[in-house]
Amino acid sequence: SERLAKGGAKVYLVARTMEKLEKARDKITKIGGKAAIYPASITDFDEIKKVIDDVYKKESRLDIFVNNAGAYKPVSFKDKDAIDKFRHLAELDFLAPSLITLYLVQKFGNTNNTLKVLTVSSQAALKLFENGVGYGTAKIGLSAFLFEAEHQLNTEGIKNIKLYRLYPGTVATEAMMPLIKEGILQNPTTLDSVVDAASDLLLDKTMSRDLEIKYVPGEGIKRIYLEYATDKFRLLPVVREEVVDMNFDPSI
Predict the structure, then answer these.
(1) CA nearest 126: which of 143, 113, 102?
(2) pLDDT over threshold 90, residue 20
């Protein structure tokens, strides 16, 4: 938000806690940026719809939407509250950002409003992790939705909406530091590296709209550009291919 504000954007901040919103807004205004705040929960779809509609009514435009809200919790089958944890992560990390993206496409698709939607996903969408049955499942599901949405945008000829996907590794934010110190999360990258990657995506300075950013031990912070192509999309590598009935004729 600070980076966007420094670049001249008017930023609307959305979160549940008014105190945190006010603190973030004041930080941006002190550096000369423009910011307004909306208290709302990402999991309350009606609230988020109202925010989007209200911002558009005020500004007559919406240029960038950042789907950044989410949470990480390890889920073990030994946890007594595993089902509750799973449900919470599925709602917060998959369902909410997917519904928001769907609403944005329906509201602005094929209009004069050009919109960039950046979804901050996770490296957990790209590989499996220990105790990731909740968080990892949600992030893989979110990416699957976004791939399908990308394909549908192309199919329906909607050209004024662009989807961008960022896959950060563990990020050394204030909220994540306790889990990093406990060894639950490893190899954190810097927040600045993630912000730089997000900014470059939105400015179309990257070779693709799918970008992984993470710290790799022995190498440093790496950007990994990923290709999205419908004709190459697969969930698993091909082990073997064979024809089992070469004489079948579907017209008979």
Answers:
(1) 143
(2) yes
